[in-house]
Amino acid sequence: MYTLQWDDAYVIGQPLIDQQHQMLFQLANRVFHISQEHNQRHALQEVFAALFDYTERHFHDEEEVWQSLEATLCRQHRERHRQLKQSLEAIWSEDSIFAIAETLNRLYDWMQELVDHITQFDRFMNQQIAVNS
Ligand SMILES: [Fe+2]
Ligand SMILES: [Fe+2]
């Protein structure tokens, strides 16, 4: 079974955003755990929906934090969020056509992509905020 371990190396130094990133880890872990306990698609879809909603909210909040930065940077970052959202949505909406194990594999891979996004792009944006203030 998958369990994601939060690592302080993922901290970017912006309390609201760091807190939301940790919440995303918790929600993804809830997806992994619930599928283990119940093996029921309905319960899985519910927690997956919660993860999706929270991801949307997080991206939105984050874009507000970055909005004082240069327009091109903001646009590129928004585009990365859009792609991540799209691939998460695809996992969720295609869930029923795969075995649960495959859905979980795909979510695990997506979380690795999210970690890359956090440690590269979110951190970069936060550094730009620090430089500009
Ligand atoms: Fe983020
Ligand atoms: Fe981001």
Describe what you observe in this structure.
The protein has 133 residues and is an all-alpha fold. The chain has a single domain (12-132), classed as Four Helix Bundle (Hemerythrin (Met), subunit A). The protein has helices at 15-37, 41-66, 71-93, 100-132. The longest helix is centred in the C-terminal third of the chain and has 33 residues, at 100-132. The mean pLDDT is 93. The structure holds fe (ii) ion (2 copies).
Instruction: Enter the CATH topology name.
Output: Four Helix Bundle (Hemerythrin (Met), subunit A)
Radius of gyration: 15 Å
Structural class: mainly alpha
What does the average pLDDT come to? 93
Total domains, how many?
Answer: 1
Give the oligomeric state of the chains in this entry, treating copies of one chain as homo and distinct chains as hetero.
single chain
Q: Count all strands and give the number.
A: 0
Q: Report the CATH superfamily.
A: Hemerythrin-like
CATH class call: Mainly Alpha
Compounds present? fe (ii) ion
CA(first)-CA(last) distance: 44 Å
Amount of helix? over 70%
Main pleated-sheet profile = none
SSE arrangement, N to C: HHHH
**Low-pLDDT residue intervals, each spanning 5 or more residues:** none
- Count, helices: 4
The CATH architecture classification is Up-down Bundle
Residue share in β-strands:
under 5%
